[in-house]
Amino acid sequence: QVHLVESGGGLVQPGGSLTLSCAASGFTFSDSYMRWYRQAPGKKREFVAYITSAGDYSRYTDSVEGRFTISRDNTNNTLNLQMNSLRPEDTAVYYCNALGDYWGEGTLVIVSS
To answer: How far is 91 from 110, CA to CA, in rounded Å?
Structure first.
């Protein structure tokens, strides 16, 4: 059974940094593209970033390009999202996604002074 558990969210001031993690199990993590999404209050869930199975290519939505970095550890079945220069508009629940169909419970990021 696919199981995804996000962690690392919290309250951070504008301009600050956070690193999110997603612990994955129940599928062959090293064979799977992985994605981060987020959902801000009152808005639809949106794509943030994805990374190939080998971690050799990644892509970002325009609003986070240059500030966020997606990475993975295929030895420990972990997906990460390093978030720098955070803005209030980055406030959202962040979710990892596997195989297109599976979601974690999410981790809340609040960017506020």
So the answer is: 5
Residues 83-105: tens digit of each pLDDT: 999 999 999 999 999 988 899 99
3-state SS track over the chain: CCEEEEECCEEECCCCCEEEEEEEECCCHHHCCEEEEEECCCCCCEEEEEECCCCCCEEECHHHCCCEEEEEECCCCEEEEEECCCCHHHCEEEEEEECCCEECCCEEEEECC
Contact 81, 94 (CB under 8 A): yes
